[in-house]
Amino acid sequence: MTATLPARRPPSTVPPxxxxxxxxxxxxxxxxxxxxxxxxWLLSGLTARxxxxxxxxxxxxxxxxxxLIMMPLxxxxxxxxxxxxxxxxxxxFLAAFTVLPIVLTVNYAFTNYNAVNSGNPDxxxxxxxxxxxxRRVVTxxxxxxxxxxxxxxxxxxxxxxxxxxxxxxxxxxxxxxxxVQSVDGLQVTLSAPFVPDITVAxxxxxxxxxxxxxxxxxxxxxxxxxxLVPVFIWTVxxxxxxxxxxxxxxxxxxxxxxxxxxxxxxxxxxxLFLPWAIPAVISVQMWVALFNQQFGxxxxxxxxxxxxxxxxxGDPLWAKISVLVVNLWLGFPYMMTATISALxxxxxxxxxxxxxxxxxxWQQITNITxxxxxxxxxxxxxxxxxxxxxxxxxxxxxxxxxxxxxGREATAxxxxxxxxxxxxxxFASSGGQNFALASAIALIIFFLTLAISLVNFKAAGVFExxxx
Length: 468
What we know:
By secondary structure, this protein is an alpha+beta fold. It contains 16 helices and six strands.
């Protein structure tokens, strides 16, 4: 009597339904993409060791090749996944432009990564060097700005075991990274013979960066009174004032232009819509010229009235006012258009009934128009606050964060908001291109924005509406 095993059921070609199916498909695709990225990274690292002159884009070729091999293999194991391959481009862009920047920002926030500690060879401290015949010992001519090789290479151990050393040929066009085994005076013994067939002429160290824990956050909060606190207060004032001023201007103009008895209202709408249609870069540069203290048309016009020239962009207070004025010019058309669109959803019978009851135009606006516009304007105001909280463009283009203010950090001047403060820290010379500190600032901005958004949503009753 023979026993027969039950036939193995082939994998189902029907994809799981509902949210579970979508999440499962995304998980499978993410694992496949992560596996291909890992294979590409490992192969590119091996290629860089064997062929130091290999182009950096080899990692993309390896990742693409790994995907082409893995995709049919995964389909054999999970047949229904082929229906979800259209999500691959979205996952790639999400990983490249969202996930990776977030991971790098969080990682750099706990390091000392900056223009000096960049992980690259130090070109300013190169020294002449020679390589022994067995290609194992590098002799340095000197140690620039250092008393010893250990200090020059910034070794954590006396023998410098495992520390990197970069070698160059006569032209110094391609850096070759090696690993140190030991140090004796000016002689550096490598852990393995130097393989590339070149004549070593120079050497230098790697300006490596390291993890420093919460040191960046300690530095930020230690200088809070000179940067974080005043910049945060101005950011909130700027965002809140902009939203309120623009909303009031947009409401007034929208209500006026919605009046069907107004002659030429389409012409007025078109003219008032132009500030929104013109690119902000052009508009802001125009305002910079208008606000010029000596030659600007604004001060020239004030001079005709006997008013002294106003330092629009040269005084901290007036610069803040200038920012609000220019942002009003750029923002009121959006609020005006939103008001006109919202007004078109209100039933005209309500106004007719109010007119029959003897209500004035002002009473109709306060008792009918404004209450009915509340539900439409709440998400607009919240999104406007969130946008202006990080409105880097208007600050950078109009004032570059200035003018300078006494008692402030060089990267956090009178009109700087949190985002421009982080930008100045990371990319401006005054900030020393301190990418690690800027990453810490970015994390602080994230948590502050999240907290303010939660407060706004709670105050506006968004969560209560979502539960209904």
